[in-house]
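Record passed on underneath.
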Amino acid sequence: MLILKLTIVPLALLLFGIVERLHGPRVAGWLAGFPIVGGPLLVFITLDHGLAFGSAAALGAYFGLVPWLAFAMTYAFCARSMGWLWCSIVGFTVWTAVSVIVVMMQAASRWLEILPLAAFLVTLFAYPRGAASDEEREHVWWGIPVRMVAGAGLTIVITHFAASMGSRWSGLFATFPVMGSIICISSHLQYGRHAVQEVVAGMSMGLASVGTFCFAVYLLLGMTGMWTAFALALALSTSAHALTWLLFKHKS
């Protein structure tokens, strides 16, 4: 199991990094919405702690879209006038504050399960999208290895401490913006503030996929077996990602 935790997410991030280099930051942001990190994390959490815990964690991961979007919007706004370090500090401060709020809201009412969807729709239609840049960009050698190490570290930490954190927080950390933050910061460092706007423009559309995946896992783990639930959730999230591609092309 440890070998899987150390390899699945980093290898997925390696593939992701290759696609990003071929197609630019906006496509990278869009792809960051696919459950490339959260999916394997929820699988490991469910294997370690059972179906009920996995279902609750998936709901926490679904609510985790709200602080993820808050981080992305905050970083993009701050990048207009700040460097990457201050953007990161402010962005993660906002992520932490919003995370505390949504964890408390999960237990308040089932009607609040509409909140992540509402946040996604508001962001989707409110965030400005200019034309994608076609400028030539050079890629630093450390970009992909750093992402792979961060992905492996996050997988080990979350699955190890899942029981002590509880299902809500472990689920929420399954959608911690590890991909989003690394892409925002690396794009900011390498290409400048305009690339950050492109990344977040793509990300705000692509997050429909991870939201669909997490909510489907939350519902299906109580109705079917584990592997059936995850397979159906993956199929649904892939379909959602394909649909956002149409919007992505329209907005580009």
